[in-house]
Amino acid sequence: MGQAVGMPVPDPPSPALLLGPLLRHVDPVSATVWVETDRPCTVDVLGRSARTFCVGEHHYALVVVEDLEPGSTTPYEVRLDDVRVWPPEDTAFPASRIRTPGRPGPFRLAFGSCRYASPGTVEASEGIPPDALDLYAKQVAGLPEDRWPDALVLLGDQVYADELSAHTKSLLHRRRGRSTERRAMDDQVADFEEYTRLYYESWQDPQVRWLLSTIPSSMIFDDHEMIDDWNTSAAWRAKASRQPWWHGRITGGLVSYWVYQHLGNLSPRELAENKTWQAIQGLSDDDPTRDAQPMLREMAELADAEPATIRWSYVRHWGDARLIMVDTRAGRVLEEQHRRMLDEDEFAWVEAAMRRAVDEGVEHLIIGTSLPWLLPHAIHNLERWNETLNVRHHGRWRGKVAEAIRQAADLEHWSAFGHSFERLGAALTAVARGEHGRAPATALVLSGDVHHAYAAELVSPGGLEARVHQLTVSPLHNQAPHPIRVGFKIGWSRAARRWTERLARLVTAEPTGLAWDKKAGPYFGNQIGELVLSGREARFLLSVSDKGDEHLRQVLDEPLSAG
Predict the structure, then answer these.
(1) Which H helix or E strand runs over 446?
(2) Residue-wise pLDDT tens digits, 160-190
(3) How far apart are alpha carbons 114 and 317 in whole angstroms?
(4) pLDDT tens per residue, range 341-387
(5) Is the pTM higher than 0.70?
(6) How many CB atoms lie under 10 A from the CB of residue 205?
(7) What is the C-alpha to C-alpha distance for residues 461 and 2, in angstroms, rounded to an integer?
(8) Which of 272, 294, 220 is nearest to 449 (CA)?
(9) 45, 65 Cβ separation under 8 angstroms
(10) What are the φ and ψ backbone dihedral angles of 130, each rounded to 5 degrees?
């Protein structure tokens, strides 16, 4: 039935903000702001605008805000088709703002990993302690601005594709209906559309939305963005690839990671040089409803088959500090006789970035890697033992047993890639000895993954002018089962270390020339770490929440620099 003659035509509803804004890359003069909207529109931030682009009937925009002043603080709003949608009218949080590097005072960096769903969709019966990121956001909102963190580093497992909340399972069951293949994946996501639900679930909390709108975030994936133990070994990879659901899973996972996480990791200069981003911009300029998903799916398929076609690693420049974020999942070399955490080109890129940082006089070199480099000694020795057995007996019964142990015990950290472990150690040692120029005060490896926190320091070889630390913080919102807690506590013990050293010697595993001591930990519960950097001084703060806590409890304040 048509509109009655003379009746007024109602105005179409205004576009709405589904996710975001996320403040992503911030440098002294520019910033990027990411959003997801419910329809095509123009997104405006501080007078700079961008048209949305479409992926699988979802609409996103990345607004590049330029001509900012170094060391400035600029509150901002988000407008969709010239209608203000952020901040919310009834918000109790401070105004979202862009704070560019260059302000006086220490540089504060918050970091952590492993955030399963959000408190609002996790039943209390699951027994997970309070979300450390939620509690941290509330804590930050109550502080004066000069005490806010300058950056947030999320080190993997921002979503869990293979461990779903009851709420998400229910949604997916209704969507899938009677599809036999998809019902076989009842407890895991299967494609891009289902991945979008995980990001809604993870980032919808008002506290987290405010934090991500105000503190620039840097992200990297770990395994659970795709599937548990992703790329553990060639045998794992061959088995996974044969599954009928694998193609949709890996392409959906990589496409969603590119949209929700990777795009915001790129600087304005890198965006201008990124062929995929420029092609998507061309599509949306022609028609903002044209779907970029086929293009991104092709990118993901190629990235999965030939990892060297895309670099997920990147660099952040923060004045006296430099972050080199390293992909330790997608680009692994899995051939048993030549296992590498990174391929040759990627490792050379990381080493070159480290040398540039030293040449430019940074005081604190930070390596971000989802997986810890320095582990509890007993676990390090077990990974070296296991890799040696796999290499020596590959294809025979002993090798098959070793592979089964590797997958069952998750023996796939840096120590399980012995060549790469030693190469990273050599690169950090060279920096710390001043072989590339004046040594920084600290060289820090930030990691997550292992569902507890600890600090370790490299103590050998000697002659180090910089202090080299492993700082591990995980999880933000998950839990470590009791056997895991016991195992990691034992892993630092002298008895376990001696026993596993003998085990490694039995198979003539190549010993490392590096030595490290535990400085603090292990700590359990949900947690978030902070670096406080001022000149050549550095401190590591750790705050924890456990069952029944309404606030974070600071449990550690560890000096990291000399003097």
Answers:
(1) strand 442-447
(2) 999 888 888 888 888 887 655 555 566 899 9
(3) 25
(4) 999 999 999 999 999 999 999 999 999 999 999 999 999 999 999 99
(5) yes
(6) 19
(7) 82
(8) 220
(9) yes
(10) -55, 145
